[in-house]
Amino acid sequence: MAQTVETGEIHFFYRSKIDTDEPSDADDLQRMYLALVPDDRKHARLFIVGRKQMPEIRPGESHPSERHWLLLSEIGTPAEIGTALRPVRYETKTKGERQTPQAIPVGSGRYVIAPRDDATQLAYRLTAPDRPGKAQSALNIRNEARYVIAIRNPSVKVPGFPDARPDYPKDLAGKFADERWIDVSDPRLLDYENAQLVLIGADETADPLEIGSDGTADPFATFGLDPADWPDDPLKGGSFAAATGEAEPVESEGDRSKGGRRGGPAAAGTDSAAGVASALKGMSFPSDRAGLVRQAHDNDAPDEVIDLIESMPDRRFDTMADVSKAVGEVR
C-alpha cells in the first residue's frame, strides 16, 4: 500500500438558515461543513463546503457538479472547533435578538489522504448513520467515496473560488512554484486558515485506499458537544432535524467611547470591518454591491452589517481589500 499522508476522523455538519424550522434540502442551509480530525488529535480543521453539497460522482464522465471547493474556516483543538459549531446569539438594530442555529452532525466516519493515480485522494467511509438517508442524499454524502484533492496556489486567481488567502510560511509557499494547484503531499498545507481545496469526484468506493482504524467516530465526544443539546436524528436515521440548542446570552460590547470594538468572534456580529469580513466569508470575486449583499444574506449576517454593505458605493469589487476600502469610505 502506498504511504498515506494522513488518517483520522471525518465529520459532516449542516447549519440551517435562520427561521428555517427543519431543512429539507441544501437550499434551506446556511452552511455545510466538513471537519477533519487527524489521528494525533492535536488539532482539527473545519471546512466550508462549496455549494453546500459534496461533489457528485459520475464514473466515466466529467461534469461541473463533480468539482466543488472547500475553504478552511477554522483550525484549532477539537474542543475549539466544537465551540465554533455552537449556536450564536446576537443583537440587530431592526429585528432585535437573533440566533444563528447550531451546526448539526449529519455523518461521521474515518478518512485517509493518500497518493493515487498521480494525484492525492481523500477517501472516507461512514460509521454513522448505518445507512445514508434523505439528509445524506440531499447533501451527496455517500456511505463511502473517493475524491481527488488538490490545494490552490494562493497567489493565483481561480474563477469561482473565494478570494481569501492563507498566510503560508516560505517553506510551504515555495511548494507551489508556478503551479495553480498542487497535491496535498504535506498535511501542513491544510493547517492554515483560508486554505482552499478542490474536491473532484473519483469513485463511489473508498477502495483501494486503506482507511485505517476500524473504530467509530463520535462527533459529540470528539468536539465536546452535549448530546442532550444536539439532535442526533441525522446520525441515527438519516433524516434532517431542526436545531434545538440555545446560545449563550449576548456578550456586552463594552464602552465604545474608550476605543475599539470587540475583537475575535464577537466582532463578527458588529458592523465593523471584521463583521463585514465574516458576513462575506466564502465570497467569490469579482462582484458588484448586489453580489456582496446576497452573500451577506446567505451567511445570515446581522442587519447592521447588511445595512453597511448596502450603503457602500455600487462599483466592482475585485478583492476583500476593495471592500475594506469601501467600508472606510462610508464609516
How do the strands line up in the largest sheet?
1-2-3-4-11-9-8-7
Q: H/E element string?
A: EEEEHEEEEHEHEEHHHHHH
The largest β sheet comes out as: 8 strands, antiparallel, barrel
Instruction: Determine the structural class based on helices, strands and strand pairing.
Output: alpha+beta
How many domains?
2
In total, how many beta strands? 11
What oligomeric arrangement do these chains adopt?
A: single chain
- Backbone CA Rg: 20 Å
Strand content: 25-35%
Unreliable runs: 251-271
**Overall pLDDT level:** 85
SS summary, helix count: 9
Q: Can you put this structure into words, describing what you see?
A:
The protein is an alpha+beta fold. The chain folds into two domains: about 5-235, no CATH class; about 260-330, no CATH class. The chain is built from nine helices and eleven strands. The chain has helices spanning about 80-85, 135-140, 170-175, 220-225, 235, 275-280, 290-300, 305-310, 320-330, and strands at about 5-15, 30-40, 45-50, 65-75, 90, 95-100, 105-115, 120-130, 145-150, 180-185, 195-205. β7 (about 105-115) and β8 (about 120-130) form a beta hairpin. α7 packs antiparallel against α8. It is globular.
